[in-house]
Design a protein that fits this description.
The protein is α/β, with parallel strands linked by helices. It is 35% helix and 19% strand. The protein has 16 helices and 19 strands. The longest helix has 25 residues. It is elongated, with a radius of gyration of 24 Å. Bound molecules: ligand BES and zinc ion (2 copies). The site of one zinc ion has 4 residues, from loops.
Length: 501
Protein backbone atom coordinates (compact mmCIF):
# COMPACT_ATOMS: atom_id res chain seq x y z
CA UNK A 1 0.00 0.00 0.00
CA UNK A 2 1.11 3.52 -0.72
CA UNK A 3 2.20 5.57 2.30
CA UNK A 4 -0.48 7.87 3.58
CA UNK A 5 -3.40 5.97 2.09
CA UNK A 6 -5.94 5.07 4.67
CA UNK A 7 -6.57 1.35 4.84
CA UNK A 8 -8.50 0.04 7.80
CA UNK A 9 -9.08 -3.15 5.87
CA UNK A 10 -6.70 -5.45 7.69
CA UNK A 11 -7.45 -4.79 11.32
CA UNK A 12 -11.20 -4.82 11.08
CA UNK A 13 -11.86 -8.46 12.00
CA UNK A 14 -15.19 -8.39 13.74
CA UNK A 15 -16.49 -10.69 16.43
CA UNK A 16 -18.67 -13.49 15.07
CA UNK A 17 -22.31 -13.62 15.99
CA UNK A 18 -23.50 -16.59 17.99
CA UNK A 19 -26.51 -18.42 16.55
CA UNK A 20 -28.09 -21.30 18.43
CA UNK A 21 -31.18 -23.49 18.27
CA UNK A 22 -33.91 -23.97 20.85
CA UNK A 23 -36.95 -26.22 20.79
CA UNK A 24 -40.14 -25.09 22.46
CA UNK A 25 -42.46 -22.15 22.16
CA UNK A 26 -40.78 -18.82 21.51
CA UNK A 27 -43.76 -16.93 22.94
CA UNK A 28 -43.19 -18.60 26.33
CA UNK A 29 -39.45 -17.90 26.50
CA UNK A 30 -38.35 -14.56 27.92
CA UNK A 31 -36.44 -12.44 25.40
CA UNK A 32 -35.93 -8.78 24.52
CA UNK A 33 -37.06 -9.25 20.94
CA UNK A 34 -38.83 -12.17 19.30
CA UNK A 35 -39.58 -12.27 15.58
CA UNK A 36 -42.57 -14.41 14.67
CA UNK A 37 -42.92 -15.03 10.95
CA UNK A 38 -46.40 -15.86 9.77
CA UNK A 39 -48.10 -17.07 6.57
CA UNK A 40 -51.21 -15.40 5.16
CA UNK A 41 -53.17 -18.60 5.31
CA UNK A 42 -52.27 -19.57 8.88
CA UNK A 43 -53.85 -17.71 11.74
CA UNK A 44 -51.67 -16.18 14.43
CA UNK A 45 -51.63 -17.86 17.86
CA UNK A 46 -54.57 -16.70 20.03
CA UNK A 47 -52.26 -14.99 22.52
CA UNK A 48 -50.81 -12.87 19.69
CA UNK A 49 -54.21 -12.13 18.17
CA UNK A 50 -55.14 -10.66 21.55
CA UNK A 51 -52.41 -8.07 21.13
CA UNK A 52 -53.55 -6.44 17.87
CA UNK A 53 -56.39 -5.58 15.56
CA UNK A 54 -56.19 -8.54 13.12
CA UNK A 55 -56.94 -6.35 10.09
CA UNK A 56 -53.74 -4.41 10.83
CA UNK A 57 -51.56 -7.39 9.96
CA UNK A 58 -52.40 -9.73 7.08
CA UNK A 59 -48.98 -11.45 6.83
CA UNK A 60 -48.37 -10.05 3.36
CA UNK A 61 -44.81 -10.71 2.10
CA UNK A 62 -42.44 -8.34 3.84
CA UNK A 63 -45.13 -6.76 6.03
CA UNK A 64 -43.99 -6.05 9.61
CA UNK A 65 -45.59 -4.98 12.88
CA UNK A 66 -43.81 -4.34 16.16
CA UNK A 67 -45.77 -5.06 19.31
CA UNK A 68 -45.11 -4.39 22.99
CA UNK A 69 -46.95 -7.20 24.80
CA UNK A 70 -46.38 -5.72 28.29
CA UNK A 71 -46.27 -9.09 30.01
CA UNK A 72 -49.06 -10.77 28.06
CA UNK A 73 -46.45 -13.13 26.60
CA UNK A 74 -42.83 -13.75 27.63
CA UNK A 75 -40.95 -11.66 25.00
CA UNK A 76 -40.72 -7.93 25.76
CA UNK A 77 -41.02 -7.04 22.09
CA UNK A 78 -42.69 -9.05 19.37
CA UNK A 79 -41.96 -8.37 15.73
CA UNK A 80 -44.45 -9.92 13.34
CA UNK A 81 -43.14 -10.51 9.82
CA UNK A 82 -45.43 -11.54 6.96
CA UNK A 83 -44.37 -14.44 4.74
CA UNK A 84 -47.17 -14.38 2.16
CA UNK A 85 -48.79 -17.63 1.07
CA UNK A 86 -47.46 -20.85 2.56
CA UNK A 87 -47.44 -22.63 -0.80
CA UNK A 88 -45.06 -19.97 -2.19
CA UNK A 89 -42.59 -20.23 0.68
CA UNK A 90 -38.97 -21.01 -0.13
CA UNK A 91 -35.72 -20.69 1.74
CA UNK A 92 -35.55 -17.14 0.37
CA UNK A 93 -38.76 -16.27 2.27
CA UNK A 94 -37.09 -17.30 5.53
CA UNK A 95 -33.79 -15.61 4.68
CA UNK A 96 -35.59 -12.30 4.20
CA UNK A 97 -37.64 -12.64 7.38
CA UNK A 98 -34.64 -13.35 9.59
CA UNK A 99 -32.68 -10.49 8.01
CA UNK A 100 -35.63 -8.23 8.83
CA UNK A 101 -35.43 -9.42 12.44
CA UNK A 102 -31.75 -8.72 12.86
CA UNK A 103 -32.10 -5.28 11.24
CA UNK A 104 -34.87 -4.47 13.75
CA UNK A 105 -32.68 -5.64 16.63
CA UNK A 106 -29.91 -3.34 15.40
CA UNK A 107 -32.34 -0.45 15.26
CA UNK A 108 -33.71 -1.13 18.76
CA UNK A 109 -30.23 -1.75 20.22
CA UNK A 110 -31.24 -5.21 21.39
CA UNK A 111 -28.22 -7.53 21.55
CA UNK A 112 -30.16 -10.77 21.33
CA UNK A 113 -32.96 -11.80 18.99
CA UNK A 114 -35.16 -14.91 18.79
CA UNK A 115 -36.69 -16.00 15.51
CA UNK A 116 -39.33 -18.55 14.61
CA UNK A 117 -42.14 -19.42 12.21
CA UNK A 118 -45.74 -19.89 13.28
CA UNK A 119 -47.03 -23.30 12.21
CA UNK A 120 -45.43 -25.85 9.93
CA UNK A 121 -43.05 -24.85 7.18
CA UNK A 122 -43.31 -26.54 3.80
CA UNK A 123 -39.50 -26.75 3.90
CA UNK A 124 -36.96 -29.28 5.07
CA UNK A 125 -35.97 -28.20 8.64
CA UNK A 126 -32.25 -28.20 7.86
CA UNK A 127 -32.77 -26.06 4.79
CA UNK A 128 -34.97 -23.67 6.75
CA UNK A 129 -32.41 -23.42 9.54
CA UNK A 130 -29.67 -22.65 7.03
CA UNK A 131 -31.81 -19.87 5.57
CA UNK A 132 -32.47 -18.46 9.04
CA UNK A 133 -28.76 -18.32 9.81
CA UNK A 134 -27.92 -16.84 6.41
CA UNK A 135 -30.52 -14.11 6.80
CA UNK A 136 -29.23 -13.24 10.26
CA UNK A 137 -25.55 -13.04 9.27
CA UNK A 138 -26.19 -11.29 5.97
CA UNK A 139 -28.70 -8.86 7.46
CA UNK A 140 -26.23 -7.80 10.13
CA UNK A 141 -23.52 -6.91 7.60
CA UNK A 142 -22.48 -3.28 7.20
CA UNK A 143 -19.45 -1.75 5.57
CA UNK A 144 -18.83 1.23 7.80
CA UNK A 145 -15.18 0.80 8.65
CA UNK A 146 -14.23 3.91 6.67
CA UNK A 147 -16.73 6.09 8.54
CA UNK A 148 -15.69 8.09 11.54
CA UNK A 149 -17.70 9.59 14.36
CA UNK A 150 -20.24 6.76 14.42
CA UNK A 151 -22.46 6.99 17.46
CA UNK A 152 -23.55 4.14 19.70
CA UNK A 153 -26.67 3.41 17.67
CA UNK A 154 -24.45 2.90 14.62
CA UNK A 155 -21.68 0.82 16.15
CA UNK A 156 -24.13 -1.39 18.02
CA UNK A 157 -23.86 -5.09 17.17
CA UNK A 158 -26.34 -7.90 17.68
CA UNK A 159 -24.42 -10.60 19.51
CA UNK A 160 -26.70 -13.61 19.68
CA UNK A 161 -29.62 -15.09 17.82
CA UNK A 162 -31.78 -18.07 18.70
CA UNK A 163 -33.68 -20.05 16.09
CA UNK A 164 -36.78 -21.74 17.46
CA UNK A 165 -37.51 -25.06 15.82
CA UNK A 166 -39.26 -28.38 16.40
CA UNK A 167 -36.23 -30.53 15.74
CA UNK A 168 -32.87 -29.61 17.06
CA UNK A 169 -30.29 -31.88 15.39
CA UNK A 170 -30.93 -31.06 11.77
CA UNK A 171 -31.57 -27.46 12.78
CA UNK A 172 -28.11 -27.14 14.37
CA UNK A 173 -26.54 -28.58 11.25
CA UNK A 174 -28.43 -26.15 9.05
CA UNK A 175 -27.48 -23.22 11.25
CA UNK A 176 -23.81 -24.15 11.21
CA UNK A 177 -23.81 -24.42 7.41
CA UNK A 178 -25.79 -21.21 7.02
CA UNK A 179 -23.29 -19.30 9.16
CA UNK A 180 -20.33 -20.63 7.20
CA UNK A 181 -21.99 -19.75 3.90
CA UNK A 182 -23.06 -16.27 4.97
CA UNK A 183 -19.60 -15.49 6.32
CA UNK A 184 -18.23 -16.51 2.94
CA UNK A 185 -20.67 -14.06 1.35
CA UNK A 186 -19.68 -11.30 3.77
CA UNK A 187 -16.00 -11.97 3.05
CA UNK A 188 -16.75 -11.52 -0.66
CA UNK A 189 -18.63 -8.30 0.12
CA UNK A 190 -15.62 -6.96 2.03
CA UNK A 191 -13.32 -7.68 -0.90
CA UNK A 192 -15.61 -5.88 -3.34
CA UNK A 193 -16.20 -2.94 -1.01
CA UNK A 194 -12.49 -2.38 -0.39
CA UNK A 195 -11.48 0.74 -2.39
CA UNK A 196 -9.40 0.27 -5.53
CA UNK A 197 -6.25 1.74 -4.02
CA UNK A 198 -6.34 -0.77 -1.19
CA UNK A 199 -7.67 -3.83 -2.97
CA UNK A 200 -5.31 -3.82 -5.94
CA UNK A 201 -4.02 -7.00 -7.62
CA UNK A 202 -1.04 -7.63 -5.30
CA UNK A 203 -3.34 -7.06 -2.31
CA UNK A 204 -5.78 -9.57 -3.75
CA UNK A 205 -2.89 -12.00 -4.07
CA UNK A 206 -2.05 -11.46 -0.39
CA UNK A 207 -5.71 -12.05 0.50
CA UNK A 208 -5.52 -15.41 -1.28
CA UNK A 209 -2.44 -16.39 0.70
CA UNK A 210 -4.12 -15.37 3.97
CA UNK A 211 -7.26 -17.27 2.99
CA UNK A 212 -5.19 -20.36 2.21
CA UNK A 213 -3.57 -20.25 5.65
CA UNK A 214 -6.91 -19.63 7.37
CA UNK A 215 -8.86 -22.53 5.88
CA UNK A 216 -6.22 -24.81 4.39
CA UNK A 217 -5.80 -24.24 0.66
CA UNK A 218 -2.77 -24.62 -1.55
CA UNK A 219 -2.22 -21.14 -2.94
CA UNK A 220 0.12 -19.92 -5.67
CA UNK A 221 0.28 -16.29 -6.76
CA UNK A 222 2.11 -15.61 -10.02
CA UNK A 223 3.86 -12.24 -10.12
CA UNK A 224 4.97 -10.15 -13.12
CA UNK A 225 8.17 -12.04 -14.02
CA UNK A 226 6.30 -15.34 -13.82
CA UNK A 227 3.42 -14.02 -15.92
CA UNK A 228 5.90 -12.81 -18.52
CA UNK A 229 7.84 -16.04 -18.53
CA UNK A 230 4.75 -18.22 -18.85
CA UNK A 231 3.08 -16.02 -21.45
CA UNK A 232 -0.04 -14.63 -19.77
CA UNK A 233 -0.41 -12.12 -22.57
CA UNK A 234 -4.01 -11.15 -21.79
CA UNK A 235 -3.46 -10.29 -18.14
CA UNK A 236 -0.22 -8.49 -18.92
CA UNK A 237 -1.79 -6.37 -21.66
CA UNK A 238 -4.70 -5.21 -19.54
CA UNK A 239 -2.50 -4.58 -16.49
CA UNK A 240 0.17 -2.64 -18.36
CA UNK A 241 -1.26 0.81 -17.77
CA UNK A 242 -1.35 0.55 -13.98
CA UNK A 243 1.37 1.06 -11.40
CA UNK A 244 -0.19 -1.88 -9.56
CA UNK A 245 1.17 -5.03 -11.17
CA UNK A 246 -1.22 -7.77 -12.26
CA UNK A 247 -1.34 -11.19 -10.62
CA UNK A 248 -2.65 -14.65 -11.41
CA UNK A 249 -3.97 -16.54 -8.40
CA UNK A 250 -4.36 -20.31 -8.10
CA UNK A 251 -6.11 -21.77 -5.06
CA UNK A 252 -6.59 -25.49 -4.59
CA UNK A 253 -8.88 -27.30 -2.18
CA UNK A 254 -8.68 -31.09 -1.90
CA UNK A 255 -6.79 -33.14 -4.45
CA UNK A 256 -7.27 -34.90 -7.75
CA UNK A 257 -8.27 -38.50 -7.13
CA UNK A 258 -10.55 -41.12 -8.63
CA UNK A 259 -14.18 -40.64 -7.63
CA UNK A 260 -13.70 -36.98 -6.67
CA UNK A 261 -14.78 -34.49 -9.31
CA UNK A 262 -12.40 -31.66 -10.16
CA UNK A 263 -14.19 -28.35 -10.65
CA UNK A 264 -12.51 -25.13 -11.76
CA UNK A 265 -13.97 -21.85 -10.54
CA UNK A 266 -12.68 -18.84 -12.45
CA UNK A 267 -13.15 -15.22 -11.38
CA UNK A 268 -12.63 -11.82 -12.98
CA UNK A 269 -10.47 -9.84 -10.58
CA UNK A 270 -10.43 -6.43 -12.23
CA UNK A 271 -9.69 -4.48 -9.06
CA UNK A 272 -10.61 -1.21 -10.73
CA UNK A 273 -11.97 -0.69 -14.24
CA UNK A 274 -11.52 2.84 -15.52
CA UNK A 275 -12.04 1.55 -19.05
CA UNK A 276 -8.39 2.23 -19.86
CA UNK A 277 -7.79 4.46 -22.90
CA UNK A 278 -11.41 3.77 -23.93
CA UNK A 279 -12.15 5.65 -20.73
CA UNK A 280 -15.53 5.27 -19.06
CA UNK A 281 -17.66 8.35 -18.38
CA UNK A 282 -17.67 9.38 -14.69
CA UNK A 283 -21.03 7.86 -13.68
CA UNK A 284 -20.13 4.52 -15.22
CA UNK A 285 -16.82 4.53 -13.34
CA UNK A 286 -18.22 5.30 -9.89
CA UNK A 287 -18.75 1.69 -8.85
CA UNK A 288 -15.91 0.10 -10.79
CA UNK A 289 -14.02 -1.06 -7.70
CA UNK A 290 -16.68 -3.78 -7.87
CA UNK A 291 -15.23 -5.21 -11.09
CA UNK A 292 -13.63 -7.98 -9.06
CA UNK A 293 -17.00 -9.38 -7.95
CA UNK A 294 -16.28 -12.64 -9.79
CA UNK A 295 -12.96 -13.02 -7.99
CA UNK A 296 -14.65 -12.23 -4.67
CA UNK A 297 -17.23 -14.95 -5.32
CA UNK A 298 -14.46 -17.46 -6.00
CA UNK A 299 -12.62 -16.43 -2.81
CA UNK A 300 -15.83 -16.71 -0.77
CA UNK A 301 -16.73 -20.08 -2.27
CA UNK A 302 -13.22 -21.47 -1.63
CA UNK A 303 -13.54 -20.42 2.01
CA UNK A 304 -16.96 -22.05 2.36
CA UNK A 305 -16.02 -25.27 0.58
CA UNK A 306 -12.99 -25.69 2.83
CA UNK A 307 -14.92 -24.91 6.00
CA UNK A 308 -17.72 -27.30 5.06
CA UNK A 309 -15.09 -29.88 4.05
CA UNK A 310 -16.99 -30.84 0.91
CA UNK A 311 -15.76 -34.01 -0.83
CA UNK A 312 -14.73 -32.25 -4.05
CA UNK A 313 -11.52 -31.07 -5.65
CA UNK A 314 -11.88 -27.38 -6.39
CA UNK A 315 -9.42 -25.12 -8.18
CA UNK A 316 -10.05 -21.40 -7.82
CA UNK A 317 -8.42 -19.27 -10.52
CA UNK A 318 -8.40 -15.49 -10.47
CA UNK A 319 -7.00 -13.11 -13.05
CA UNK A 320 -6.22 -9.90 -11.22
CA UNK A 321 -5.38 -6.61 -12.95
CA UNK A 322 -6.20 -2.92 -12.83
CA UNK A 323 -7.38 -1.28 -16.06
CA UNK A 324 -5.90 2.22 -16.29
CA UNK A 325 -5.08 4.75 -19.00
CA UNK A 326 -1.44 5.79 -19.23
CA UNK A 327 1.29 6.17 -21.84
CA UNK A 328 2.07 2.58 -21.01
CA UNK A 329 -1.48 1.30 -21.39
CA UNK A 330 -2.62 -1.13 -24.07
CA UNK A 331 -4.41 0.53 -26.95
CA UNK A 332 -7.29 0.02 -29.35
CA UNK A 333 -5.72 -1.63 -32.39
CA UNK A 334 -3.21 -3.61 -30.36
CA UNK A 335 -3.07 -7.34 -30.93
CA UNK A 336 -2.56 -9.42 -27.83
CA UNK A 337 -1.25 -12.98 -27.76
CA UNK A 338 -3.02 -14.84 -24.98
CA UNK A 339 -1.68 -17.75 -22.94
CA UNK A 340 -3.46 -20.13 -25.31
CA UNK A 341 -1.45 -18.80 -28.25
CA UNK A 342 -4.59 -17.35 -29.81
CA UNK A 343 -4.41 -13.69 -30.81
CA UNK A 344 -6.91 -11.01 -29.82
CA UNK A 345 -7.55 -7.76 -31.62
CA UNK A 346 -8.25 -5.03 -29.08
CA UNK A 347 -10.94 -2.67 -30.34
CA UNK A 348 -12.05 -1.26 -27.02
CA UNK A 349 -9.82 -1.34 -23.95
CA UNK A 350 -12.93 -1.31 -21.76
CA UNK A 351 -13.81 -4.83 -22.90
CA UNK A 352 -10.88 -6.02 -20.77
CA UNK A 353 -12.60 -8.71 -18.71
CA UNK A 354 -12.73 -11.23 -21.54
CA UNK A 355 -9.03 -10.58 -22.25
CA UNK A 356 -7.78 -11.34 -18.73
CA UNK A 357 -10.19 -14.27 -18.47
CA UNK A 358 -8.91 -15.83 -21.69
CA UNK A 359 -5.65 -16.69 -19.91
CA UNK A 360 -7.39 -18.08 -16.82
CA UNK A 361 -9.81 -20.21 -18.85
CA UNK A 362 -7.02 -21.68 -20.93
CA UNK A 363 -5.02 -22.35 -17.75
CA UNK A 364 -8.03 -24.21 -16.30
CA UNK A 365 -7.70 -26.91 -18.98
CA UNK A 366 -4.53 -28.28 -17.40
CA UNK A 367 -6.58 -29.63 -14.48
CA UNK A 368 -8.82 -31.70 -16.82
CA UNK A 369 -11.87 -30.49 -14.90
CA UNK A 370 -15.36 -31.97 -14.97
CA UNK A 371 -16.59 -28.40 -15.20
CA UNK A 372 -15.31 -24.85 -15.56
CA UNK A 373 -17.60 -22.29 -13.95
CA UNK A 374 -16.52 -18.71 -14.52
CA UNK A 375 -17.99 -15.59 -12.91
CA UNK A 376 -17.44 -12.04 -14.04
CA UNK A 377 -18.89 -8.57 -13.97
CA UNK A 378 -18.48 -8.73 -17.71
CA UNK A 379 -21.03 -6.60 -19.56
CA UNK A 380 -23.31 -3.62 -19.01
CA UNK A 381 -25.60 -5.31 -21.53
CA UNK A 382 -26.59 -7.98 -19.01
CA UNK A 383 -27.97 -5.21 -16.76
CA UNK A 384 -30.13 -4.04 -19.65
CA UNK A 385 -31.38 -7.59 -20.18
CA UNK A 386 -32.02 -8.77 -16.60
CA UNK A 387 -31.61 -5.81 -14.29
CA UNK A 388 -30.40 -6.89 -10.88
CA UNK A 389 -32.83 -9.78 -10.55
CA UNK A 390 -30.80 -12.58 -12.06
CA UNK A 391 -27.31 -13.47 -13.20
CA UNK A 392 -26.92 -14.15 -16.92
CA UNK A 393 -25.66 -17.57 -17.96
CA UNK A 394 -24.19 -18.97 -21.16
CA UNK A 395 -22.18 -22.08 -21.75
CA UNK A 396 -21.23 -25.09 -23.76
CA UNK A 397 -22.75 -27.85 -21.65
CA UNK A 398 -26.47 -28.05 -20.95
CA UNK A 399 -26.27 -30.47 -18.04
CA UNK A 400 -23.78 -28.20 -16.28
CA UNK A 401 -26.05 -25.22 -16.86
CA UNK A 402 -29.05 -27.19 -15.58
CA UNK A 403 -27.15 -27.89 -12.36
CA UNK A 404 -26.37 -24.19 -12.01
CA UNK A 405 -29.99 -23.20 -12.67
CA UNK A 406 -31.14 -25.58 -9.97
CA UNK A 407 -28.52 -24.29 -7.55
CA UNK A 408 -29.63 -20.76 -8.38
CA UNK A 409 -33.23 -21.48 -7.46
CA UNK A 410 -32.27 -23.30 -4.28
CA UNK A 411 -29.81 -20.65 -3.09
CA UNK A 412 -31.93 -17.63 -3.99
CA UNK A 413 -29.23 -16.47 -6.45
CA UNK A 414 -31.13 -17.01 -9.68
CA UNK A 415 -29.45 -17.48 -13.02
CA UNK A 416 -31.07 -17.10 -16.43
CA UNK A 417 -29.72 -18.83 -19.50
CA UNK A 418 -29.02 -17.17 -22.84
CA UNK A 419 -28.37 -19.03 -26.11
CA UNK A 420 -24.92 -19.53 -27.56
CA UNK A 421 -25.52 -20.47 -31.15
CA UNK A 422 -22.81 -20.68 -33.75
CA UNK A 423 -23.74 -17.26 -35.17
CA UNK A 424 -22.51 -15.64 -31.95
CA UNK A 425 -19.18 -17.41 -32.20
CA UNK A 426 -18.81 -16.05 -35.72
CA UNK A 427 -19.42 -12.51 -34.44
CA UNK A 428 -16.21 -12.45 -32.36
CA UNK A 429 -13.90 -13.51 -35.20
CA UNK A 430 -11.43 -10.88 -36.34
CA UNK A 431 -9.95 -10.10 -39.73
CA UNK A 432 -6.47 -9.37 -38.42
CA UNK A 433 -6.33 -11.69 -35.41
CA UNK A 434 -8.07 -14.87 -34.24
CA UNK A 435 -10.65 -13.01 -32.17
CA UNK A 436 -11.73 -9.44 -31.54
CA UNK A 437 -12.75 -8.17 -28.13
CA UNK A 438 -15.72 -6.17 -29.37
CA UNK A 439 -18.61 -7.29 -31.54
CA UNK A 440 -20.88 -4.26 -31.36
CA UNK A 441 -23.92 -3.63 -29.20
CA UNK A 442 -26.31 -6.35 -30.40
CA UNK A 443 -26.21 -9.41 -28.11
CA UNK A 444 -23.34 -7.80 -26.20
CA UNK A 445 -23.49 -10.23 -23.29
CA UNK A 446 -23.70 -13.29 -25.49
CA UNK A 447 -20.82 -12.35 -27.76
CA UNK A 448 -18.72 -11.78 -24.62
CA UNK A 449 -19.62 -15.32 -23.53
CA UNK A 450 -18.83 -16.65 -27.01
CA UNK A 451 -15.41 -14.99 -26.83
CA UNK A 452 -14.69 -16.76 -23.53
CA UNK A 453 -15.80 -20.12 -24.88
CA UNK A 454 -12.96 -20.00 -27.40
CA UNK A 455 -10.48 -20.66 -24.57
CA UNK A 456 -11.92 -23.66 -22.71
CA UNK A 457 -11.29 -26.38 -25.29
CA UNK A 458 -13.82 -29.19 -24.98
CA UNK A 459 -14.28 -28.90 -21.23
CA UNK A 460 -17.83 -28.32 -19.97
CA UNK A 461 -18.03 -24.59 -19.46
CA UNK A 462 -20.51 -22.13 -17.98
CA UNK A 463 -20.11 -18.37 -17.86
CA UNK A 464 -22.04 -16.34 -15.28
CA UNK A 465 -22.32 -12.62 -15.99
CA UNK A 466 -22.84 -11.00 -12.60
CA UNK A 467 -22.51 -7.35 -13.71
CA UNK A 468 -26.12 -6.73 -12.63
CA UNK A 469 -26.08 -8.74 -9.42
CA UNK A 470 -22.69 -8.09 -7.81
CA UNK A 471 -23.45 -4.58 -6.62
CA UNK A 472 -26.53 -2.77 -5.27
CA UNK A 473 -27.07 0.98 -5.18
CA UNK A 474 -30.51 0.78 -3.66
CA UNK A 475 -30.86 -2.30 -1.46
CA UNK A 476 -34.17 -4.01 -2.19
CA UNK A 477 -33.86 -7.23 -0.19
CA UNK A 478 -33.68 -7.10 3.62
CA UNK A 479 -30.34 -8.91 3.63
CA UNK A 480 -28.69 -6.55 1.14
CA UNK A 481 -26.60 -3.53 2.07
CA UNK A 482 -25.42 -0.81 -0.30
CA UNK A 483 -22.32 -2.03 -2.14
CA UNK A 484 -21.05 -5.50 -2.93
CA UNK A 485 -23.61 -8.28 -2.62
CA UNK A 486 -21.24 -11.25 -2.51
CA UNK A 487 -23.33 -12.85 -5.25
CA UNK A 488 -22.10 -16.22 -6.43
CA UNK A 489 -20.95 -17.59 -3.09
CA UNK A 490 -24.33 -19.10 -2.17
CA UNK A 491 -24.87 -20.29 -5.73
CA UNK A 492 -21.44 -21.95 -6.04
CA UNK A 493 -21.73 -23.55 -2.62
CA UNK A 494 -25.08 -25.07 -3.46
CA UNK A 495 -23.77 -26.21 -6.86
CA UNK A 496 -20.70 -27.86 -5.31
CA UNK A 497 -22.68 -29.46 -2.49
CA UNK A 498 -25.02 -31.10 -4.98
CA UNK A 499 -22.11 -32.03 -7.23
CA UNK A 500 -20.38 -33.83 -4.36
CA UNK A 501 -23.44 -35.93 -3.45
N1 LIG B 1 -16.71 -4.07 -16.02
C1 LIG B 1 -17.44 -3.72 -17.19
C2 LIG B 1 -18.86 -4.26 -17.18
C3 LIG B 1 -19.78 -3.69 -16.12
C4 LIG B 1 -20.64 -2.65 -16.44
C5 LIG B 1 -19.82 -4.22 -14.86
C6 LIG B 1 -21.48 -2.14 -15.47
C7 LIG B 1 -20.66 -3.71 -13.89
C8 LIG B 1 -21.50 -2.68 -14.20
C9 LIG B 1 -16.74 -4.27 -18.44
O1 LIG B 1 -15.37 -4.38 -18.36
C10 LIG B 1 -17.06 -3.34 -19.54
O2 LIG B 1 -16.67 -2.22 -19.46
N2 LIG B 1 -17.76 -3.83 -20.54
C11 LIG B 1 -18.14 -3.06 -21.66
C12 LIG B 1 -17.91 -3.90 -22.88
C13 LIG B 1 -18.09 -3.18 -24.17
C14 LIG B 1 -17.01 -2.14 -24.35
C15 LIG B 1 -18.06 -4.19 -25.27
C16 LIG B 1 -19.61 -2.68 -21.52
O3 LIG B 1 -20.39 -3.50 -21.05
O4 LIG B 1 -19.95 -1.54 -21.85
ZN1 LIG C 1 -14.35 -2.57 -18.87
ZN1 LIG D 1 -14.58 -4.63 -16.43
Amino acid sequence: MIQGEFNPFDNAKEKDMEVKVKTGDMLHEPSDLAMLANFEDISLPAEVLDLLEPEDFQSKPGQTLLLYPRGAIAPRRLLLVGLGKRENATAETIRRASATAVKEAQKLLVPEVSVGVNGDLALDPQEAAQAFAEGIELGAYRFWRYRTGLDETQTFKVERATVFSRTDQSTSKGIAAGQVIARGVNFARDLVNGPGYAMHPPALGDEAIKLGKRVGLKVTVLDMPQLIEQGFGGILAVGKGSEHEPRFIVMEYGEAKAGTPTICLVGKGLTFDSGGLSLKPPEAMETMKSDMGGAAAVFGAMQVVAELKLPVHVIGLVSAAENMPSSNAYRPGDIVKSLSGKTIEVLNTDAEGRIILSDALFYAQRFHPKAIVELSTLTGAIIIALGSHATGMMGTDQSLMDRLSKAGDASGERVWQFPMWDEYHQMVKSEVADLKNLAGRPAGSITAGAFLAAFVGDYPFAHLDIAGTAWVDRPAKPYDTLGGTGVGVRLLTEFLREYSK
